[in-house]
Amino acid sequence: MSIPLLFPEIYHKQLESGVTKPSLLTCKDKDGNRKGEYVVKLRANISFGVTSLAFELIASNIALCLDIPTPEAVLIEIDENFASSIKEEEISKSFISSLGLNFGNKYLKGYSTWTRGMSLSSFQSQLACEIFAFDALIQNPDRSLVHNKPNVLTKNEEIIIIDHEKAFSFLFPLIGKRKMNAWEISEETFVKNHLFYSELKKSSKRDIIDFDYIKNKIERLSTNKLDSIIDSLPTEWKNDYTSKIRIHLEEIVNYSDKFIYELKKTLL
Fold first, then answer.
1. How much is the pTM?
2. How far is residue 147's CA from residue 251's CA, in Å, rounded to a whole number?
3. Residues 173-227: pLDDT tens digits?
4. Burial call 57-67: b when 16+ CB within 10 Å, e when fewer
5. Which residue, among 260, 163, 147, has the nearest Cα to 213 in the 3D structure?
6. What are the domain boundaries of the chain?
7. 3-state secondary structure of 105
8. Of 252, 94, 246, nearest to 171 (Cα)?
9. Is-contact 45 20, C-beta < 8 A?
């Protein structure tokens, strides 16, 4: 799995949303061809540095494999000349502290953030359940309304997910909270706080979900596919955490029937 490598050409602004203080850039490829606008998350502005960037990239590639809409993921290489050219002093310092490879994704225009009280249409319900399953798979507690941070964009009937740097929360368990099996998700608090949980529990939505389709999608994550996803990470982003993620994902794929059972149990 090859991840596009881009280089910043124009700094536009720091985006208002997001604790990671992402910035909007126009980027080009190695041949100087302008590729458009991208959002960059800097290693200096994110909780666990390149480890969190690795989480983003792994989760984005899993979403791609499962046909879950998410912006194109790229690597953006920051050099000192570009970082020093940014006029805002504090932002320039963040770029200087983030020299090298950083996570980026294609900037999407014309979308609004999913807000509290919005309902799923019948058309959206299947994809919403696939997103729910995806977040259970990667143990992402961040797509919720608990902190008013849904990380979901919408336009008409479209749903697009963003921001996965807090995925794989099993790597940081609370004392006494670690599970024995990766597929045991029905008692997890984060799934019940999920953005789509309440909507999907409604029988009118739940009864039209094709869970076999979701199971078949998860089984796409073959040994070769998982190897490809992990191997696509920059070398310096790989560590013991990424190895544990590989094991976690493979366990769920191997016990996909139990994972789907837990998913159904959660939504009863």
1. 0.94
2. 30
3. 764 455 679 999 998 999 999 999 999 999 878 889 999 999 999 999 999 999 9
4. bbbbbbbebbe
5. 260
6. 5-106, 112-267
7. strand
8. 246
9. yes
